[in-house]
Design brief:
The structure holds 2 protein chains of 2 kinds. The N and C termini of chain A lie far apart (about 50 Å). The longest helix of chain A has 23 residues, at about 265-285. By secondary structure, chain A is α+β, with helices and mostly antiparallel strands. Helix content of chain A is about 30%, strand content about 25%. In chain A, the strands form 4 sheets. A 5-stranded antiparallel sheet of chain A has the order 4-5-10-6-7. Chain A has a 4-stranded antiparallel sheet with strand order 11-12-13-14, sandwiched between helices. Chain B has 5 helices and 5 strands. Chain B is about 35% helix and about 15% strand. By secondary structure, chain B is an alpha+beta fold. The chains are: A alpha+beta, B alpha+beta.
């Protein structure tokens, strides 16, 4: 399995990369390549031009700025995984990256790639939906900020124009009394999720849900934001009864298909169970446990 | 067809080559340079048999283009031994029977030697976590873990001897 032929460019400037991407209708960005190269080897993707942005300077960083955690799109997963800042304050992100593919793949795979790729099995999309993140895209006319809720359009389809490059992801810094968790069932390390659930919560002084974000992985054509479950919990306490009802709403929002990983019913049931557990863990962390 | 001139330092030696953009790093190593120590297993980023170190970090060379490695340093299993003396990780696999069929061994050693470079005293959990992207179809993980522990001990002893 050898990919079809393609032109390859590796510019050092972002403006050159954007120009190269716009220079051919079938050009694709190459980030870490851990999804795109296998797709090309299977000939499921055959871009005419690959624009490798590895050598573009200034796309690899993790820092907090004005209420946001800003992550450069070419930051490797292993860098996120080993970031003390992420481990200390961003539990949902830390959980997610620790189960994203495997430790060797994480040395090549990038944050931007996992979001822009558009496979429902990617782990970041659900997590970013739960966080209420934003992504920054740069095109010929400059930069624009895209809320994550309008980013995922369909299978391998995002709000990015064909000549835009995702340069940054912004995660709101959690307020006090916040917590998050990502729970994933996978058949083996490195497999896509059978299903996974991302939960991010903020509690008020009385321990009631002030804000709730729930994202679902690999149970639909894109990651799913379980809005009915989120809305149900707002203002309520974190009793088992409330969490179970919210989990049922999340399961109802999922749209899995039967495949080698399980039947539709099995996956819906899994979403429910994992939503319960993810919410419980998020609440426990929000309470400082 | 898109050809590129690349220079890659492999096991300390600089190689210049003209390669097609679609040439994978593992094929560059095995077919262009006849370095067949790096194995091709699943060919789909799952098994880790093709693991090499790119700028010191283990990566799956079946999912890296040779052109992506331009200007970088690659270390393969052939680069572990120095002056005919086995690397402690190789000694560990030998002493602890860390291989049965041997197919996963080069990848296992490249991943675990990178772990030891970064974390000289890993716990068993840390070892198992580090090699979780490398599959052993013989399921010989117990002895692979022992081999890595042997290498860690050996390297710690050598370091202590050097310090004394």
């Amino acid at each position: 399995m050898i990919p079809p032929t393609f032109e390859y460019v590796a510019p050092k400037m972002l403006s050159e990369a954007v120009a190269a991407l716009g220079g051919h209708e079938n050009a694709k960005v190459l980030a870490g390549g851990q999804s795109l190269i296998p797709l090309m080897r299977f000939r499921l993707a055959s871009p005419a031009v690959l624009v490798d942005i590895t050598r573009v300077e200034g796309l690899s960083y993790i820092n907090e700025d004005k209420g946001w955690l800003k992550i450069g799109s070419m930051t490797r997963q292993s860098t996120v995984d080993h970031s003390p800042l992420v481990r200390e304050k961003y539990h949902l992100l830390a959980d997610t990256v620790s189960v994203l593919s495997d430790p060797v793949v994480r040395n090549m795979g990038t944050v931007g790639g996992n979001i822009a790729n558009g496979d429902p099995g990617n782990d970041y999309p659900a997590t970013m939906l739960a966080y209420g993140a934003e992504v920054v895209a740069v095109g010929p006319k400059g930069e624009r900020v895209i809320p994550i809720t309008s980013f995922f359009i369909g299978l391998y389809e995002s709000a990015l124009a064909s000549n835009e490059i995702l340069t940054e992801v912004r995660i709101p810094t959690p307020k006090p009394h916040s917590g998050g968790a990502y729970l994933k069932l996978e058949r083996k390390v490195g497999d896509f999720a059978t299903a996974a659930v991302a939960a991010q919560v903020e509690l008020d002084a009385k321990g009631k849900f002030k804000s709730v974000g729930i994202g679902l992985t690999n149970v639909g054509l894109t990651a799913i934001k379980a809005t009915a479950a989120e809305d149900f919990l707002k203002g309520k306490d974190s009793s088992d009864e409330n969490i179970r009802q919210a989990a049922q709403l999340a399961a109802d929002a999922s749209a899995p298909i039967a495949d080698v990983r399980g039947s539709e019913n099995y996956k819906r049931s899994l979403v429910k169970t994992y939503t319960v557990r993810a919410l419980r863990l998020a609440v426990q962390r929000a309470k400082g446990g | 067809m898109s050809n590129h001139h690349i220079h890659v330092t492999i096991n300390g030696k600089l190689h210049h080559a003209d390669v097609e953009s679609r040439l994978l790093l593992v094929h560059f190593l095995r077919e262009n340079l006849n370095m067949t120590g790096t194995h091709i297993g699943c060919d789909t980023t799952s098994c880790g048999a093709c693991t090499v170190q790119l700028n010191g970090k283990p990566v799956k060379s079946c999912t890296v283009l040779a052109v992506q490695a331009d200007g970088m340093e690659v270390k393969t299993v052939e680069g572990l031994a120095t002056n005919g003396k086995l690397h402690p990780i190789q000694e560990g696999f030998h002493e602890k029977h860390g291989l049965q069929c041997g197919f996963c061994t080069p990848g296992m050693m490249m991943t675990s030697s990178a772990l030891l470079a970064q974390n000289p005293h890993p716990t068993e959990d840390e070892i198992r976590h580090a090699i979780s992207g490398n599959l052993c179809r013989c399921t010989g993980y117990m002895n692979i873990v022992k081999a890595v522990q042997y290498a860690a001990d050996k390297m710690a002893t050598a370091e202590k001897a050097a310090a004394d």
